[in-house]
Amino acid sequence: MSLDIDFVRRQFGQLDDDPQFVFASNAGGSYVCNQVNNLVEHYNRHTRVQPYSNFPSSAEAGDAMNRARQGWADALNIGLSELTIGPSTSMNTYVMSQAIGDLWKADDEIIVTNQDHEANSGTWRRKAIEKGMTMRQWEVDPETGLLDVEQLIPLLNEKTRWVFFPHCSNIVGTANPVANIVSQIKDNSSARVFVDAVAYAPHHICDLKAMDVDGYAFSLYKVFGPHQGLMYINAAIYADLTSQAHYFLTGDPAKDFNPAGPQHAQVAACAGVLDYFDALHAHHFDNKGVAPAQKMTDIHGLILQHENQLATPLLDFLDQHPDVRLVGKTTTDDNDRAPTIAFKPLKQSSQSLASKLQTSGIGTEYGNFYAHRLISDLGLDPEDGVVRLSLLHYNRVEDVEKILRELDRALD
Ligand SMILES: Cc1ncc(COP(=O)(O)O)c(C=O)c1O
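Above are the sequence and the pyridoxal-5'-phosphate SMILES. Below is the predicted complex in structure-token form.
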């Protein structure tokens, strides 16, 4: 069975705006599925009131928000009380650095990487500096940008409180084997683990209990949805955290880690992403009685197959081109290579190449994409950075063919 790409594309109205344009900047934010747009419009037209009161529009607003929260908890296989829906991942990690870091002591240690987007790096580093702690860096291979778990183990010791790393870097585009890394961390220390999945979730919504992480965060505006950040915090560790809510609201996990408060219409619209996934599942599989987390696994099989088909010719072309330095794995053979493909043109600036592609109708970007440390440690100029072509499962094989034609011309 393969992904019905025509069905997929019918769910994204924005794809009709300019059929010639190839959107290849999805890692910056995806198109929004129609199901989400419909929910936002419905909320704003009919239930735009303070939710959770007993008059009809308010009760309906509260029900819509509850549906979204319960739906995402089920999809991630976590408890409802373990889900925070906040304004963004950067804001969620910032708040968590207060909640997690308040109880850190000078003698404690943390491990961060130089592969992460700054949202899963700077805020933990600042807190550790404030507390006078030791901070260790799990470093990428400076050529490929890949992380190797063998390099992490010697950094762990009995003082390590937390390890922070990405599920997938927004530049390297290669998934780190989270379950395996977590089990090695837990075998070698009592550290907790927080994973930034912003660059991975658009390709696969994971069963979080199966991976045994303590914290996990991603942004729905990159997963076909509204501009919201979803964050899981394992209920078993609440005792180690300080609430960041108003004093009279503490003890409600939905509020403890979101001092911004819920953005009502946006929260309600988070359910639209799941409605899209449901429709996608029902279109391809017998949908009856399938558990929500299993649906995500089924869909992932289809998406992976299609995304590999998109990534392979691009990786082959870039890997073989003499004027290009490709970052990350060069093939999809291990099924861990997202079609988020970053490279440095060797005979012109990234800015110049990106601009040529943009002029040819390809939505791409260049720069450091807030992975400033990674770009620097790859030996690249963090201002000019890399060109990034990032695709999602609504992209077509024809899109890749156009990108290859235009790349060939622009690199010449
Ligand atoms: C890998 C990664 N982590 C974190 C973030 C920050 O997410 P947000 O924009 O929701 O703060 C981004 C945003 O681009 C990202 O790509």
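The pocket of pyridoxal-5'-phosphate is lined by residues 88-90, 117, 119-120, 166, 170, 196, 198-199, 219, 229 (CB under 6 Å).
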